[in-house]
Amino acid sequence: MERLAQPLIAIVDDSAVVRTFTAFLLANYDFEVVFDAENGQDCIDKMHQAEQLPDIIILDIEMPVMDGFQAAAILKENWPDVKIIAFSNKNDKLSMEKILAAGAKAFVTKESDITEKLIEIINQIWLQGQMKIVS
């Protein structure tokens, strides 16, 4: 069986520490980060300028300028093939439902054991997108 290429990833979070840590974590699992952004508007701007679009965007919900809810809706409208993983300290049911309705495929809280959980979810989403029906 041929090995699937790894997804290209973007990290969107208003915390530089979170962006740096997440990029470091992903690099340890051979994931390539194509860009990071400090808020939703920065992400949208970088999507328009990107030479290589990410396959998956790890998106914080609470950010200044443009939050994750607004960004997810714009991303899904303009780049429907890009998968979104919401990544937030907020872990209430309303926020989860709202971000999933805006287009996120999964929700990971920053309080969880993000190393294993985040990598597991990235792999699940990527593999689901790569599945092809063979007759």
UniProtKB/TrEMBL annotation:
Q: Which GO terms describe its biological process?
A: phosphorelay signal transduction system
Provide an example Pfam family for this protein.
Response_reg
Indicate the segments forming the Response regulatory domain, all copies.
Answer: 8-125
Spell out the InterPro entries in the cross-references.
Bact_response_regulator (IPR050595), CheY-like_superfamily (IPR011006), NreC/VraR/RcsB-like_REC (IPR058245), Sig_transdc_resp-reg_receiver (IPR001789)
Q: Where is the signal peptide?
A: none
Q: Which residues carry this modification: 4-aspartylphosphate?
A: D60
Keyword annotations from UniProtKB, A to Z: Phosphoprotein, Two-component regulatory system
The record, for CDD domains, names: REC_NarL-like (cd17535)
Specify the protein name: Response regulator
